[in-house]
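Researcher: Next sequence.
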Amino acid sequence: MKCARPRTARLADAPISPLRQRLIDDLNMRRFSRETQRNYLRDIGCLATFLGRSPDTATTHDLRRFQIEQQDNGVPVPTMNSIVSALRFFFTHTVDRPDLARLWPCSGIRAKI
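Model: Next structure:
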């Protein structure tokens, strides 16, 4: 399952749940760029779509299945690293579940030097 949204979609177009607003507030407080905010919201939204429920209800099993699904769909390593950053931020800062944030290993592929 690839989770892509049209480039023309704007943050203001999406309905704002309390959880989404809290994520936006956390991103703003830390002065994340508009593009980073858009990407993080998209990536957390992809997890929610995959789960079929709110992403703050994810379990360790859910996150592992999501990561495997992304790999099976051929998500490039740089994109997966970006998704991992978004999810680490979400679970560490927005929902205060750092136990889930620690589950995300690096992609396992080292850059060639």
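Model: The helical segments are 18-29, 34-51, 60-72, 77-94, 98-101. The first helix runs from residue 18 to 29.
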